[in-house]
Amino acid sequence: MCNSCLNERKTHFQKFRIDGIKAYSIYDYDEYIQGVIYTFKVCGDYELHKLFLFPFEKEISLFFKGYKIVPIPSFKGDDIKRGFNHVFAIFKRLDLEILDILEKTKDIKQVDVSGEKRKEIYKHLKVNKLELVNSQKILIVDDIVTTGSTLKAAIKLIKEGKPKSIKILVIAKTINIKQN
Questions:
Q1: Domain for residue 5, yes or no?
Q2: What digits encode the pLDDT tens for the residues 82-106?
Q3: Is residue 170 pLDDT above 80, yes or no?
Q4: Does residue 114 have a pLDDT over 60?
Q5: H or E element, residue 37
Q6: CATH number for the domain that contains residue 144
Q7: pLDDT above 80: residue 175
Q8: Going by DSSP bridges, is the β-strand pair 21-28/165-173 parallel, antiparallel, or unpaired?
Q9: For labeling, which of 10, 71, 88, 99 is most exposed (least CB within 10 Å)?
Q10: Burial of 124 (0-12, 13-18, 19+ CB in 10 A)
Q11: Which domain holds residue 150?
């Protein structure tokens, strides 16, 4: 990555909470990050997956050592069209095991629905192989958090499996999510 791109990308490591769970974001969801995520996720520019965690992969892996990653899913049809799952592609760079146990059962784009309708995402998420989280330290990961509805639904599903602990890591958060 060139120095110009590194300088354009402003990291804002921040802590916040979602439903009492400690959460961390790497960037604010500004115009630059929005453009990069759009190019990666919507336009399918797979090579951009390297950008999001660079140059922090080792530090993040150490910080969450012993955690198992549970990525927030996209709809399978979107993954097939795109050729990859964007959240999985970003976070596979970490030296942590990935548990692909969440599934989005309906093609609903959070960006296309109101804040009130976003809260209904829990109706369209399901968990498979819940026993895999029992007594494990779980790191739920996603690209963007705006209202937190998807993460809240994931937390609720994963808690049913009795994990040892849960934390959250997102690439970017909007100003809608309050810092703690």
A1: no
A2: 999 999 999 999 999 999 999 998 7
A3: yes
A4: no
A5: helix 31-41
A6: 3.40.50
A7: no
A8: parallel
A9: 10
A10: middle
A11: 13-173
pTM: 0.90
149 located within any domain: yes
Nearest 5°: CA angle at 63, between 29 and 104? 55
DSSP state of 168: E
Name the residue with tokens 């990050």.
Answer: 33
Q: What is the pLDDT of residues 31-62, one digit of tens each?
A: 989 999 999 999 999 999 999 998 899 999 99
CA R_g for the chain: 15
Q: What is the C-alpha end-to-end distance of the chain, expressed in Å? A: 32
Rounded distance between C-alpha atoms, residue 163 and residue 131, angstroms: 9
Number of domains present in the structure of the chain? 1
Phi, psi of 166 (to 5 degrees): -135, 140
Residue 137 in domain: yes
